[in-house]
Amino acid sequence: MPAHQNGQCGNFFTRQNDLHLFSIFNSGRLFMKFSTMPRLVLIFIMVIIVPMLVFTLVNMKISKTQMERDLQISSAQALNTAKNILNEHAKRMENIAELLAGMSEIKEKMGSDDAQLLIRSELDARHGMYPTELIELFDKNRQILARAYDEKEDALFSFFTDPEDAVIGDALDMEKHTGYFVYPSGFVLKASCPVIETKTTPPLGAIVVTHPFTPKTLQAIKKRVRAEVTLQWNFNNSFITTIQDEKGVPLARLWENAPSSFEMMEGQFLQHQESIADAPYAIAYTPLRNRDEQIVGILSAAVRSDVIHHLKEDMSLTILISFLSVFALAIIVGGMTARSFIRPVRQMT
Question: Among 98, 72, 130, 314, which Cα is nearest to 195's?
Fold first, then answer.
């Protein structure tokens, strides 16, 4: 082959290689140009969205923790108020027993032939001042002389004091006794006081004031503490409560994590979250002790904690909305910024 033909062939292949390399270079720049924008947009998305999500989650976690703490404080305060109400009531019953035991009208009539009738009229005349109490007078032989109570309250019949009850014996031994008692009929608060003429003579008898705990009692406490109130004893499903199910019917059984023994209450105080009748509550418990410091019952106050559950639902919705909003914003801002970076590359091409 002539030399000039060999040179032409060499130049042809060289030009072909140059064109191929140039096309590869342009393709690379074109690839870089089109791949830079998505990468920059992705960077802006990460820079904006991640801190925003972290900030939102942290704030919501703090809010949830604070709400839980506030609800625990509310249930503890409600329980403390309920306990104070019971203490005030016990003191009031002591005063009633002492007042009636010290009345000369009652002392004078205890030895009369018509003692029962006369004393009953005296107690009835004063029962209007203490409509929720069962008031009983026993003589020195433990025989009932008179009772005063609201006869419309049929449940009171089951709370009549037995003549052999220790509370009467304490009064006849010149001791005043106020405390909680558990009977087959239920849970009661009793106050007794001896009826005496002088400190040197044997007692004439004993006054016993009884307040049985009924749903009506707890409803009155609920209105004052603004929380659901429950009283339990014996752990054989013996309890009364103001909590109702979704149909407005009082609970037939205690909730799953309710204290199952008095030993659980030796620490004086217990608190936790609980779902009752498909409703969330923050519950606080405290023991009720008799005169011998033995735990005989447990009082609890429950505050609805719907706000926390609503917060959890709102948290997911807020995160989703925030993510979509910030994602759209990041794409717009990232795209605009990416163009400003890509423009010099385009000018070079």
Answer: 98
- Predicted TM-score (pTM) above 0.85: no
Q: What are phi and psi of 148, to 5 degrees?
A: -130, 125
Q: Rounded to 10 degrees, what is the CA torsion of 328, 329, 330, 335?
A: 90
- State how far the Cα of 102 lies from the Cα of 97, in Å rounded to an integer: 9
Distance separating alpha carbons of residues 211 and 191, to the nearest angstrom: 9
Regions of the chain where pLDDT drops below 50: 3-34
Q: Taking the CB of residue 272, how many other CB atoms lie within 10 A of it?
A: 13
Residue 210, pLDDT score: 93
**Maximum CA extent, the chain:** 161
For residue 138 the two structure tokens come to 């026993």
| Beta bridge partner(s), residue 325 | none
Domains of the chain: 67-308 (3.30.450.20)
Question: Could you give the strand order of the β-sheet that contains 134-139, starting from the edge strand earlier in sequence?
Answer: 144-148, 134-139, 205-212, 186-195, 177-183
Structure tokens at 94: 């002591």
Best CA proximity match to 307, nearest among 72, 82, 99, 113: 72
**214: nearest Cα among 249, 251, 187:** 187
Q: What is the DSSP code string of 69-104?
A: HHHHHHHHHHHHHHHHHHHHHHHHHHHHHHHHHT-H
Closest by CA to 140, choosing from 203, 200, 83, 88, is 203
Instruction: Count Cα atoms within 13 angstroms, Cβ side, for 328.
Output: 5
Per-position DSSP letters for 205-248, written without gaps between them: EEEEEEEE--HHHHHHHHHHHTSEEEEEETTTTEEEES-B-TTS
pLDDT in tens, 307-331: 555 555 666 666 667 667 766 766 6
